Amino acid sequence: MHLRLFAFVISLLCEVIRRGSGVIQKQSAHRGTSVDCRSCLECSRDNGCVRCPERLFLFLQRDGMSHHGTCLHACPAGHYGQRGKDINRCMKCRSLDCEHCFSRDFCTKCKSGFQLYKGKCMTSCPKGTFAHQKDCLESCLFASLGEWSEWSTCVHNGVTCGFRWGMQTRTRNSRRPEEKTAWLCPSQNETQRCRMKKKCPTDDEEGHGSHLSLSLPLSSVSPMAANCCGLT
């Protein structure tokens, strides 16, 4: 009686071992042939990778109602790598305008059509900053300022005489320190008040009113200036 029971237990144990071996072989074959499972430490037939080697990141991609895992050396666009004690994961950037991010709320590169400023993606650069490629810079890089130009002619309402005071302007442009270097700074302008010749010279003195702005039509000259200069 005891011998029969012992033989039955041995037979049952052998069957369990045989079936278990078959399952392991099937899993190993699946792991060896599946592209998604080649870099995994653990893999599921339905969900792909569930555990990755130490240096790789587990990227879970939604597939219908489930997720499919892949082990990657670098996380895809719109995600960042978060290292953990047991597993490294690819986490999604919070902003949809962010192409790459350092953490959930700090972008390092924006999608096309957006400018990067202090970790945020913006449709335009804030006031006081300069757009350079995909970044907003707070200072003019690589752009030394040239010398100021001469002051422009003192004018008032487009004429150079007939008033006591006018305005004049000078400009200072940025210049490239070397070839192929970004030119980021806009030109600078200064305007100051200036004294004018209150009395316009006659044609005999200056020849045909040369102090008048030639680019301005007569209709835009003030009646006072036109009268003093003999244009009416």
Automatic annotation (TrEMBL):
Start and end residues of each R-spondin Fu-CRD domain: 37-134
Signal peptide boundaries: 1-22
Keyword list, A-Z: Disulfide bond, Glycoprotein, Secreted, Signal
InterPro entries registered for this protein in UniProt: Furin_repeat (IPR006212), R-spondin (IPR051514), Rspo_Fu-CRD_dom (IPR043601), TSP1_rpt (IPR000884)
GO CC terms, sorted: extracellular region
Pfam families: Furin-like_2
Compartments (UniProt record): Secreted
Protein name, UniProt field: R-spondin Fu-CRD domain-containing protein
Organism from which the protein derives: Solea senegalensis
